[in-house]
Amino acid sequence: MIKLLSVSKKFGGKKVLDNVSLEIPDGQKIAVIGPSGCGKSTLLRLLIRLIDPDRGSIFINGKEMTLLDEDALMKMRSKIGMVFQSSALFDSLSVYENIAFGLRQNAVLTEDRIREKVAEKLSMVDLPGIEGLMPGELSGGMQKRVSFARAIANDPSVILYDEPTTGLDPVTSTVIEDLINKLTKELKATGVLVTHQLSTIFRTSDRIVMVSDGKFIEAGSVEQAKSSSDPAVRNFIRGGL
């Protein structure tokens, strides 16, 4: 479970998150929506503790993230997969080395076992046998799927997605959305998706939360969000933003 208790964060005097609380049960996929600059990506950075809250507490799987020392934090991060908007692959490393990178950092595995796990994760994202290719030899959709394979290399219990379908064509977006659903189910992982793509919101999320004026608006399921009486949610869902 992910739990935020009375969390606040500001930058340059501007409150991005203002005394917000949230619970995400194990195995749930939640879409975090809202206009650009509202604090969606800030939430992801707080969850993986790239930044700390100004106040409040954040728990993942019962561990309070801000109280962890460096060793404990690294161990927790190994169980949190992160899919970046730009894929963020290392251009100078092969597909194999990109996926193996986190395995070497966070676990004591033989090279044979690393090779097995890389092949396993590539098969899970429907890209078997491309270990030797370089990122520049891949299409944008393939790069995105390799970034998924890297994110799940350590079998995470939580997967964070930062705009996973931005910049992709509709067909490739559908492939990625299906992959999100597949991986969450197979890994029994909790998913947090930051996105403004309506198709991704509708096709992948069990629950929708909107960030507006530093607060969380609970929009509920996709069907509940579509019929929400809250003007901020209604305008977003109807494409008014």
Quickly list its features.
globular, 241 residues, six-stranded mixed sheet, alpha/beta, 9 helices, four-stranded antiparallel sheet, Rossmann fold
Rg, alpha carbons = 18 Å
Helix/strand structural class: alpha/beta
What is the count of distinct domains?
Answer: 1
Shape: globular
Beta-strand content estimate: 15-25%
What's the CATH C level? Alpha Beta
Return the average pLDDT rounded to an integer. 92
What order do the helices and strands follow?
EEEHEEHEHHHEHEHEEHH
Proportion of residues in helical segments: 25-40%
| Main pleated-sheet profile | 6 strands, mixed
Overall number of strands: 10
Q: What is the name of the CATH architecture?
A: 3-Layer(aba) Sandwich
In whole angstroms, how far apart are the ends? 31 Å
Task: Please state the oligomeric state of the protein chains shown.
Answer: single chain
Q: CATH homologous superfamily?
A: P-loop containing nucleotide triphosphate hydrolases
Count helical runs.
Answer: 9
CATH fold assignment? Rossmann fold
> Strand arrangement, largest sheet?
6-7-8-3-9-10
